[in-house]
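For reproducibility, we list the full input for the zinc ion complex.
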Amino acid sequence: MHELSLCESIVETLEQQALAQHYRLVKTVWLEIGALSGVEAEALRFCFDAVTRGTLAEQAKLVILEVPGQAWCTQCSIHVPMQQRFDACPRCGGFQLRVNDGEQLRIKELEVE
Amino acid sequence: MCGVCGCGGEHHPLAKLSPVPAHGHAHGHEHDHDHDHQHGHTQTQDHAHLSPGRLVQIEQDILAKNNRYATQNREYFNRRRILALNLVSSPGSGKTALLTQTLERLKQRLPLAVIEGDQQTSLDAERIRATGVPAVQINTGKGCHLDAHRVGHALENLNLQDQSLLFIENVGNLVCPAAFDLGEAHKVVILSVTEGEDKPLKYPDMFHAADLMLLNKIDLLPYLSFDLDRCIAYAKQVNPKLRVLALSAATGEGMDNWLQWLLAEQQLLQITYR
Ligand SMILES: Nc1nc2c(ncn2[C@@H]2O[C@H](COP(=O)(O)OP(=O)(O)OP(=O)(O)O)[C@@H](O)[C@H]2O)c(=O)[nH]1
Ligand SMILES: [Mg+2]
Ligand SMILES: [Zn+2]
Ligand SMILES: [Zn+2]
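The corresponding predicted structure, in tokenized form, follows.
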């Protein structure tokens, strides 16, 4: 359940940014979560509600943008979709794949007041 | 209290952390922003607020804070040419048993140290100290993994010699420690043959994050239907670059290979490149 520490880290960022960006309330948080990041969106939501209680993001809505996984097949020299880390290249069936998207865990944008 | 992180601990031994860079900028003209908001952010769905707020783009990695501490740890290791390894596995795969055997065999040759991570107890640190090697225990409480900040504080208490070999035994958990860089040179994943050959597919993130896999408890193979080759094939499926060693902490079989790997990695750090 490291979704909990991720949410604590999000709230910390929101609090730090409040000073720099001059806001006192967070209304929406947009996150970009890669399909290969190992993070469960539902668990993240659950923890977010618990962790934001009593903070400037208590009322905040969490919007999660799920980014599909993508890898580079070194055999075929093409980008291929990757749902899970053990997927084979859909063209050659090999596993010589280098992940190049879908690992991110990012705060994209905030709606604040 | 720690002046860098405000965490109530001792002062941080390593370099000062730079403040969080504010990559973003506020923009008060919300009609023309073309970054895609097709992700369900429509006013009709949005009962939570009546008047729309100001949008702030911040574009920050959620793990940024951990990663900054990890970078700081890594710089510290590099300066002192310390080889730091992050040992990860499910509970009971034999991390501590393997460590005590390894320490016994290397303690005359290299300065060694161990950071032990467990949710509770200092039992493992005591097992390590029984070999004469210094160990610091970190109890994570409910936490399911070590983070770079806690490791940075543990380094204060270790007073590592230059060119040491530092083992960090993570909390027994095949999931969460994969996401948290501690500043180590390599993650080493330990899988015992009693766990079944399918684990690399069931917990792919960890096997993807590791550079070396140790298949432990091979002394038990005669009593199991564990398919060693299939297990290795699964692991390479999620990480084609993964290197694999098979050994037994109980009988010592295969330990020489592992010791060679450790010594070679430690030697590589002593090279000064230009
Ligand atoms: N047969 C056999 N047993 C082993 C071997 N290595 C470890 N064990 C046994 O496995 C059990 C767990 O070993 P530990 O070293 O405590 O495992 P660990 O990974 O440190 O466990 P946690 O720190 O609790 O996650 C102990 O009973 C060890 O004696 C091995 O190579 N062969
Ligand atoms: Mg242990
Ligand atoms: Zn966890
Ligand atoms: Zn291919």
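The CA atoms of residues 83 and 266 of chain B lie 6 Å apart. Residues A 1-2; B 144-145, 175-176 surround zinc ion (ligand 3) (CB under 6 Å). Both points were considered when choosing residues for closer inspection.
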